[in-house]
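Suppose you are handed a protein chain with no further information: no name, no annotation, nothing but its sequence. What can you learn? This example shows the usual starting point.
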Amino acid sequence: MQSQSMVASSATSIIPLGNQLTMSSREIADLTDKLHAHVIRDINSMLEDLLKDDPNLDDELNQSVTYEYDSRNYISNIQLTKKYVECLLTGYSIPLRMRVIERLHQLEQQKHIIIPNFSDPAEAAIAWAEQYKKSQQLEIKQKEDAPKVAYADKAHYDKDGKLISSFAKNIGIGPNKLFAYLRDKGILISSGRRYNTPYQQYTERGYFNVIEKQFEAKGEVRSYYTTLVTGKGRIWLTKILMQDNKITNQGE
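A reasonable first move is to predict its three-dimensional structure. Written in structure tokens, the prediction is:
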């Protein structure tokens, strides 16, 4: 629906659409501490519901909602006018709504952004040069930050637990054999979307953590899950594996 009826643009962050103030899906995600993929999902769901209620709304949405796409033709950002930002917020909790509303008020109090006159070659050249400089600076910063991001990801896993495959190697059992054992014991889910993730009771006991990440495939936002076994869980699993004669010593 959105790729046909909405307008694609190279715009980012907060920009005026005509004389209207807009906010991007990325800024909404930052303000609400939500995954950007979840915000995109919420926006698409909202627009579909609005069009079901009023099919004639399509022309207005073309003027109020702007989709941006990356090189793979996946949605990378969505710009919404204030009206549709406020509509989206009705589905969020009061504290999250307040964060976005306060940001909208700040934007309204700021001076209007001056849009370059692109019919003037000199002014257009200056505008493009400034944009190129900013993109170069952003690219340099991303490269500089890459090692920090990789370290943060590793630290995140170290803090929340260890991959089951790594734990299996530590205790001298094959990863596939350990996964099969945990499924047979009814500890890990044996089928479906959450395959090889623990049942809730074992997560609540502090034996496992599950990390959810998002990706896009064929225009749809999907999730995949990584199961981590905590320090408490490793002690518990080692004990039951020894009781079932799957291992002969603790190994870790």
